[in-house]
Fold:
Amino acid sequence: MDGSDLEVARPTVDVTSAAPPDASRLESNGSRRGLLEMLRYLVVSAVALGIDVGAMAVALRVLHLDYLTAATIGFSLGLCVNYVLARTWAFASRVSRVRNRLAEFAVFAAIGVVGLVINDAIIAVVTESLRVDPLVSKIVAAGVVFAWNFFLRRYVLFRNSAQLTSSQG
Structure:
């Protein structure tokens, strides 16, 4: 038996009757992935916020720095923690639009700098107009800045690896 008398069964596909992929299932998987990323980014942001607020509290209460200087120091430390955790965990399944890690951090930080401006503006307005403690104002600012950072980082900096593959083809 030399193998020439063996017939290999090849599957046939009738493309005229093939059903299209279930779009609702695809959307559902994308929605679940997006929700998972948002939840992971929420955890990342909570850790970064803890560092941010902790450093701000130390700068305010121990070092007696101006509240906007304290907010900027805390925000900067939180930004670095946020980058490492977002890159390695929250958006790990995504591909950066920027190939160089230093350049990627620069884009990440640029989004964060705009977030810092929003952060400091909200803290100043809430603290001065409502006469509340700057740490209370920080909580208000944190919610707004979270939304800003998540959406820009998810949709501008990190994109779905499937989107990257299809756009290059």
In short: Residues 23-62 form the longest helix (40 residues). The longest strand covers residues 94-96. The chain has one domain: 33-160.
